Amino acid sequence: MRIGELSARTGASVRSLRYYEEQGLLTSTRSAGGQRHYTDDEIERVVFVQRLYAAGLSSRTIVELLPCVDSPSDDHSDAAMERMLQERDRLSDHIEELQRTRDALDVLVTAARAYRDTGRANCGAAATTFA
Amino acid sequence: MRIGELSARTGASVRSLRYYEEQGLLTSTRSAGGQRHYTDDEIERVVFVQRLYAAGLSSRTIVELLPCVDSPSDDHSDAAMERMLQERDRLSDHIEELQRTRDALDVLVTAARAYRDTGRANCGAAATTFA
DNA sequence: CTAGAACCTGACATCAATGTGAGAGGCAAG
DNA sequence: CTTGCCTCTCACATTGATGTCAGGTTCTAG
Fold first, then answer.
1. Is the pLDDT at B35 greater than 50, yes or no?
2. Of A5, B53, B65, B130, which residue has the fewest beta carbons closer than 10 angstroms?
3. Which of A25-34, B98-107, B110-119 is the most confident on average?
4. Listed residue (B30, B32, B70, B33) closest to B49, CA to CA
5. In strand C, which positions have an atom below 7 A from any protein CB?
6. Which residues of chain A neighbour B81 with C-beta distances below 8 Å?
7. DSSP one-letter code for B127
8. 3-state secondary structure of B29
9. Positive or negative, the Cα torsion across A65, B122, A47, B92?
């Protein structure tokens, strides 16, 4: 398939797909005229890359992880492994912080609701529980 | 306290604190000579703001939420409320996605370990579970 | 063969938060 | 008063992923 179709199927813009290739996250074969051709496998790869992007990994980091996905037997797998564990932990920490923040928002919402319903509770005071 | 101390106590750079003020997220009184002075309450506020930043909210969004923190009785509380619920949901979705991604990394790690230990499992094949 | 859609490269623009540097002024201790 | 540190404003730079535009080429349907 050509780049437009891959774009349509993954939701990634054509621009982004070319950027991914430039960063070494995606490969393509070229037609005689120089147009990029992809196999169906690339769909999955793009989705995976996008997932990692959404998790806050940078292209550089993703590039380090992909070798393991592609060829687990390579020598650099150990480095990639290290990187993966590290990112996994970072992700865990981030998730926990987001959960705390969500809880904080919940407290605010609850306080605001109480205030609205009773006209008495102080939602501002609730904010003091976040420091 | 002056800006340097607030910076030291919150971990936010002096530059960032000025930026927060510019965005309406933080207020200060000025000395005769024009220097910013803060009360201890501002520490808490900065921490709260940073937490929201870390959760991926933009200054614009945070600005919309702060009225509720400051004065829950204001008219715009309803809009802020709406915004808060919306952000809360967005946050929940994001957390779920991060958890899925973490799980995906776990699968990769496990597969890589299995490969390393047995020299047989195919970690590349494991990657096919992420699409 | 031809028109139009899709593609190519390359370059510049964008956004948001923050870094950085210049030049000037405030403020406390000696 | 002076020295040194902190602060002020203003402005430009940075980062990373992506948008967008221009000028040219490839592919495909009719």
1. yes
2. A5
3. A25-34
4. B70
5. 6-9, 16-20, 25-27
6. 109, 112-113, 116
7. G
8. strand
9. negative
CA of B54 to C1' of C18 (A): 14
Nucleotides of D under 7 A from a protein CB: 6-9, 16-20, 25-27
Strand-pair partners of A29? A37
Look up residue B64 and give its two tokens: 């919309």
Q: Taking a contact as any Cβ pair under 8 Å apart, which residues of chain A between 7 and 66 contact chain B?
A: 43-44, 47-48, 51-52, 54-55, 65
C-alpha closest to that of B5 among B33, B29, B40:
B40
Query: Which residue segments constitute the domains of chain A, with CATH numbers given?
Result: 1-54 (1.10.1660.10)
Please name the amino acid found at residue A74: D
**For the segment 70-99 of chain B, residues whose CB is within 7 A of strand C:** none
Half-sphere exposure at residue B94, Cβ-oriented, CA atoms within 13 angstroms = 24
Burial of A107 (0-12, 13-18, 19+ CB in 10 A): middle
